[in-house]
């Protein structure tokens, strides 16, 4: 049993989930700051092999495993993430103006299900704070995507302006963008997945994308096929580079955690192991509709190495983890990469 499983995880899981996240990353930063700390972390968690490398959207990825949005909303950990073996990371969701998000507590563990429920509400320090951090980073080789959204108090009719602001401020500092209109935790946000709203948002961003920085759309798992068809039509019209499939779900079944406990936790997006089956169903439908050459990033339900491998085998070009990292610990990325290499030998 690893030190994470035997000591750190039990200790952190007794604390508020959001507080534990902050403390865990503070411990990682401390470990990286001592003499020889970074080298030790790299030896333990980083796996480098030419067979893991991929080039997609004109971007060279050292490996296909990335960190999903939500973990590092403000770019505070971008110097630490390569030490955990990630091939890339999606930072954000960031909005034009800082906002506190929803009241705490707003992040909950469902330990029996290896899942989380969150209703964070796009809490972040705003795009200019993120821009300053990105301008100051020492190593720009690590691949970063910016997940961008709208402020809660921005009317849906004006939402496209928020996405344009975030894109304009960050376009010289990241490798790709992800448009987030699919979080369930900002009231009315998922309404922006309708054809006309989406056409305006994506079209407005692409109209100022002179350098053709890759732009992807993150979709919700809770949609019917008619809406998916509309989304795919707009993606083609606006020449988007791909799909992140998918965000958290508002569904609550089937779960091992009791219905009474779930009801007590309240609203929010569900992530983790229960999303695995959902992903396969949605990815199949996306795969049937997405143009050849468009990139598919599998995000949701990656709870072990086998899950990641299955997603890559069934259509995903890259995979992202978040909840699985919390349950499996800092060695999770290396476990996935080792499994991928064993499959290729």
From TrEMBL:
<feature type="binding site">
    <location>
        <position position="272"/>
    </location>
    <ligand>
        <name>FMN</name>
    </ligand>
</feature>
<dbReference type="InterPro" id="IPR012135">
    <property type="entry name" value="Dihydroorotate_DH_1_2"/>
</dbReference>
<comment type="pathway">
    <text>Pyrimidine metabolism; UMP biosynthesis via de novo pathway; orotate from (S)-dihydroorotate (quinone route): step 1/1.</text>
</comment>
<feature type="binding site">
    <location>
        <position position="301"/>
    </location>
    <ligand>
        <name>FMN</name>
    </ligand>
</feature>
<protein>
    <recommendedName>
        <fullName>Dihydroorotate dehydrogenase (quinone)</fullName>
        <ecNumber>1.3.5.2</ecNumber>
    </recommendedName>
</protein>
<comment type="similarity">
    <text>Belongs to the dihydroorotate dehydrogenase family. Type 2 subfamily.</text>
</comment>
<dbReference type="Pfam" id="PF01180">
    <property type="entry name" value="DHO_dh"/>
</dbReference>
<dbReference type="InterPro" id="IPR013785">
    <property type="entry name" value="Aldolase_TIM"/>
</dbReference>
<feature type="binding site">
    <location>
        <begin position="247"/>
        <end position="248"/>
    </location>
    <ligand>
        <name>substrate</name>
    </ligand>
</feature>
<dbReference type="GO" id="GO:0006207">
    <property type="term" value="P:'de novo' pyrimidine nucleobase biosynthetic process"/>
</dbReference>
<dbReference type="InterPro" id="IPR005719">
    <property type="entry name" value="Dihydroorotate_DH_2"/>
</dbReference>
<keyword id="KW-0560">Oxidoreductase</keyword>
<dbReference type="InterPro" id="IPR001295">
    <property type="entry name" value="Dihydroorotate_DH_CS"/>
</dbReference>
<comment type="function">
    <text>Catalyzes the conversion of dihydroorotate to orotate with quinone as electron acceptor.</text>
</comment>
<dbReference type="GO" id="GO:0005886">
    <property type="term" value="C:plasma membrane"/>
</dbReference>
<comment type="subunit">
    <text>Monomer.</text>
</comment>
<feature type="binding site">
    <location>
        <position position="73"/>
    </location>
    <ligand>
        <name>substrate</name>
    </ligand>
</feature>
<keyword id="KW-0288">FMN</keyword>
<keyword id="KW-0665">Pyrimidine biosynthesis</keyword>
<feature type="binding site">
    <location>
        <position position="180"/>
    </location>
    <ligand>
        <name>substrate</name>
    </ligand>
</feature>
<dbReference type="GO" id="GO:0005737">
    <property type="term" value="C:cytoplasm"/>
</dbReference>
<dbReference type="InterPro" id="IPR050074">
    <property type="entry name" value="DHO_dehydrogenase"/>
</dbReference>
<dbReference type="GO" id="GO:0106430">
    <property type="term" value="F:dihydroorotate dehydrogenase (quinone) activity"/>
</dbReference>
<feature type="binding site">
    <location>
        <position position="147"/>
    </location>
    <ligand>
        <name>FMN</name>
    </ligand>
</feature>
<feature type="binding site">
    <location>
        <position position="218"/>
    </location>
    <ligand>
        <name>FMN</name>
    </ligand>
</feature>
<feature type="active site" description="Nucleophile">
    <location>
        <position position="183"/>
    </location>
</feature>
<feature type="binding site">
    <location>
        <begin position="69"/>
        <end position="73"/>
    </location>
    <ligand>
        <name>FMN</name>
    </ligand>
</feature>
<feature type="binding site">
    <location>
        <begin position="118"/>
        <end position="122"/>
    </location>
    <ligand>
        <name>substrate</name>
    </ligand>
</feature>
<dbReference type="GO" id="GO:0044205">
    <property type="term" value="P:'de novo' UMP biosynthetic process"/>
</dbReference>
<keyword id="KW-0285">Flavoprotein</keyword>
<dbReference type="InterPro" id="IPR005720">
    <property type="entry name" value="Dihydroorotate_DH_cat"/>
</dbReference>
<feature type="binding site">
    <location>
        <position position="180"/>
    </location>
    <ligand>
        <name>FMN</name>
    </ligand>
</feature>
<feature type="binding site">
    <location>
        <position position="185"/>
    </location>
    <ligand>
        <name>substrate</name>
    </ligand>
</feature>
<feature type="binding site">
    <location>
        <begin position="322"/>
        <end position="323"/>
    </location>
    <ligand>
        <name>FMN</name>
    </ligand>
</feature>
<keyword id="KW-0472">Membrane</keyword>
<feature type="domain" description="Dihydroorotate dehydrogenase catalytic">
    <location>
        <begin position="52"/>
        <end position="341"/>
    </location>
</feature>
<keyword id="KW-1003">Cell membrane</keyword>
<feature type="binding site">
    <location>
        <position position="93"/>
    </location>
    <ligand>
        <name>FMN</name>
    </ligand>
</feature>
